[in-house]
Design brief:
It contains three helices and no strands. The chain is mainly alpha-helical and about 90 residues long.
Length: about 90
């Protein structure tokens, strides 16, 4: 298998997983779940890459993970504050 076909398989798999994660977030009505799962997936991919002896891409994956976890926390906090504010009477 050529390297480009391998890369295409990885990209298509990642897009399918991201779509599945966002569909699961919507179905379960848990804001931030998709970003949390994407962050966990990048940590897993980085660990597998480091175990395989690679360094550059796994380190980039680990650097992206902080942003994914931040987005998950931000969406979760925004949903909590929106739901808490919805019950309060308007002034």
């Amino acid at each position: 298998m050529s390297p480009l076909v391998g890369l295409l398989v990885v990209v298509i798999g990642a897009l399918a997983a991201i779509g599945l994660f966002f569909a699961l977030e919507r179905w379960l009505r848990r804001p931030g779940l998709a970003f949390l799962l994407i962050g966990c997936s990048t940590v897993l991919a980085a660990g597998l890459g480091i175990a395989d002896g690679k360094r550059l891409l796994p380190v980039l994956f680990l650097l992206q993970t902080a942003g994914f976890f931040f987005m998950a926390h931000w969406r979760w906090t925004a949903a909590r504050s929106d739901s808490a504010g919805a019950g309060a009477p308007e002034a």
